[in-house]
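TASK: fixed-backbone design
INPUT:
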């Protein structure tokens, strides 16, 4: 019976979620499977992959053929490298410790790359949020500036008004009358009485 390592689709419409399974090549895409090896969620960035590495290596050593997408996922998680190193150990080219050391070094390097990508994505996301907030503030300030009316009071005296003000007789106050009377020599009391 030919065995394939392939993806089995789950999830809702537009939001796929996959199981990585070892199944008979003749079974339906979402039909019976021999063993579930892991899951793959492409809806987040970077994609989340959970995989039983030792189980996948066992199936590969027993002759299971991965599909193209499954091969890419297995390679990404280091299953193909572990199978390759296990072949070297069985031939005597490597010891078990050397193979484990090479595999762990590769995993550490890969996880550092993934963390770098996550950090870069989170920085880009926070920068985009800050830019959006700044743009929104600018739009709000512009709306406020347009909504508040600017009142400019400009007083201009026309020449006609100036002439009429100068020609019009001034009303004399009591103090003005008293001052004139003092200049002329008349008593101030009489001037006040006359005005009243």
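OUTPUT:
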């Amino acid at each position: 019976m030919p065995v394939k390592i392939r993806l089995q689709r789950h999830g809702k419409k537009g939001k796929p979620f996959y199981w990585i399974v070892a199944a008979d090549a003749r079974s339906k895409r979402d039909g019976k499977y021999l063993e579930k090896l892991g899951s793959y969620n492409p809806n987040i960035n970077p994609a989340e992959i959970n995989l039983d590495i030792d189980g996948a290596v066992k199936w590969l050593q027993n002759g299971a053929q991965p599909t193209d997408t499954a091969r890419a996922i297995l390679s990404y998680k280091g299953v193909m490298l572990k199978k390759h190193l296990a072949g070297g150990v069985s031939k005597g080219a490597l010891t078990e410790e050397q193979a484990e050391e090479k595999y762990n070094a590769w995993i550490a390097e890969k996880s550092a790359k993934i963390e770098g990508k996550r950090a870069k994505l989170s920085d880009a996301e926070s920068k985009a949020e800050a830019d959006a907030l700044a743009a929104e503030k600018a739009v709000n300030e512009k709306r406020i500036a347009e909504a508040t009316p600017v009142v400019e009071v400009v007083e201009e005296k026309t020449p006609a008004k100036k002439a009429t003000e100068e020609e019009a007789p001034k009303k004399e106050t009591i103090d003005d009358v008293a001052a004139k009377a003092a200049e002329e020599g008349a008593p101030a009391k009489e001037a006040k009485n006359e005005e009243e």
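COMMENT: The helical segments are 53-61, 68-77, 79-91, 96-147, 159-167, 174-184, 188-195.
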